[in-house]
Design a protein that fits this description.
heterodimer, A: about 220 residues, alpha/beta, Aconitase, domain 4, 8-stranded mixed sheet, about 30% helix, B: about 475 residues, 5-stranded parallel sheet, 19 strands, globular, binds iron/sulfur cluster
Amino acid sequence: MTPFTQHTGIVATLDRANVDTDAIIPKQFLKSIKRIGYGPNAFFDWRYGPDGTPDAGFELNQPRFEGRSILVTRNNFGCGSSREHAVWALAQDGYRVVIAPWKEINGERLQGFADIFRSNAVKNGLLTIELAEADVDAIFDLVKHHPGLTATADLPSQTVTFHADAQQPVFAFRIDPGIKDKLQRGLDDIAQTLAYAADIDRFETTHDLWLHPPA
Amino acid sequence: MGKTLFEKIWDAHVVRQLPDGTALLYIDRHLVHEVTSPQAFEGMRLAGRTLRRPELAFATMDHNVPTTEDRLNIEDPISRAQVDALQANCDAFGIKLFGLGDARQGIVHVIGPELGLTLPGLTIVCGDSHTSTHGAFGALAFGIGTSEVEHVLATQTLIQEKPGTYHIEFTGRLAPHISAKDMVLKMIGLMGTAGGAGHVLEYGGDAVRRLSMENRMTICNMSIEAGARAGMIAPDETTFDYITQQKRPYAPRGKDLERALAYWRTLPSDDDAAFDRTLTVDAARIAPQVTWGTNPGMVMDIDQPVPGPDTADGYSRSDVENALAYMGLTPGTRLTDVAVDVVFIGSCTNSRIEDLRQAAAILEGRKKANHVQLLVVPGSHAVREQAEAEGLDRIFKAAGAEWRYAGCSMCLGMNPDQLRPRQRSASTSNRNFEGRQGKGGRTHLVSPEMAAAAAVAGKFVDIRTWSST
Ligand code: SF4
């Protein structure tokens, strides 16, 4: 996995909540048995018109977002199916960072990202940053008023800085220390877990065997 | 303080607490299907890794398979390649496969319980978000991504953050014609599609205890649509009867069963166990539910008007406008005035024998409207055979339905069963996302009875007051 420490790139916005993984990568592209080739098909149904050419009405197709690598969107991004293809598509389409807001409704905090999407993202070096809704609103506003706006996401300091002329607004984000470490070192989970093989062996000697199916 | 059902299962599967606060969790059953596994097997090969416990993995083909008589000939070469890849991978890695043509083939979440692979107290994973279905047995079951599929193949474990707990209580008695599907759609409407994120839901209350296993599976199945990691229902006599009263080849028997039952009876949440969140829903007041928008939380009672940007709670103006434009609806419309083109009865939410019985009870002696295409797709080959033994297939065919073979079918439009652009469906499946059933298709999620009635009426109806001759 590509390690992630710091990334600077152009910021693009997608002003929709509950963007599901069917929208990120429609099912017809799930038939591949490969791990690559998904990039051009990210957001396919929104991105291309019936004739297969880019749909100018789709937010991310605006020329000002050309070369973007940081996506700012709304709450509950990546909900729906468990398909890791959604993360592969975003990463292969050039995104390194996705920013979404958590939301508070009736005193309860709703996540910016769906659980499985977030966990798939870590495994592919895609940084998901959750910010407060007011911060994300402010970022949408910045992008609107600064064509070609760039930002720097810095994992060690857990900040994302927007390079808007004189202003340089900085937003701090929280991240699980384990996930941070994994991203920074680009660690392969499986190699790490295999180092615990002795623990798994020991666990299997006492774990109730009748729970296992007949041989 | 006591423990919840979830905590008991979690604690029994922690191999090791990891330094960063996550846990290495042992996985008892790994279900595999053709769409999310090929890249995992490829990863294993590239790294030269072997399967730790091949006997704990079970595979089937469901997403890509045609559901027509000639289903063994998959015409789409890419679908075919994926199905062939699963066959080859199972052969190479020694995994039990219930392939196309096998009497045990079916949707992965339908065959797991049928075969006795799904049991209380287990940890069960699958590269598919609707793995939450299996929680109906009091198992901890959740969907994983392809990297995690590979992780389980190689290590029989997963690294997991411990989720929070969320108790959903359904009190009272359901009104006639109201089903588990209505219960869970109502709940998602209240919670929103992100309401359960980071949590495992445990469903309880009288209305849940009275449900059959099939109906409990319908509820747990859709836990993911509320964003939850998993959904669970404590095992009870209904659960034990399901496991022991029919031939379930992989369920314990004899002495093993006695030990298992003794353990399973200890699983329900303790009286003094605490949950991080709770929600109570009055089941007696649930009306037939139907979705109006493009996610399962955009749902309403059938006798309500379609909401508008100012009346849809919890959604921004543009979300509602986008959804209504996609669905071709205007605020204030009554869905009982809206015609349907296709009715789909199937998917891992509602394709079990009880779902088919409920649909058949509505269709018996009636005919679908001329302009409607009606698809009835059993969830597994075993369900298909049982339905035929009960004569349900004859009712469906007499009503003008296409009686199909097992598979995901029109739930996701990855196989030949798809909506065409602008076609409107009444569907018993679980997702009404844009394009889910076919590009441009407009999906309304409903219960099996509501779907069957819509097929006859040619439009949505309120099943409580509907009568047709
Ligand atoms: S029936 Fe639908 S939701 Fe269920 S496993 Fe198949 S595609 Fe997924």
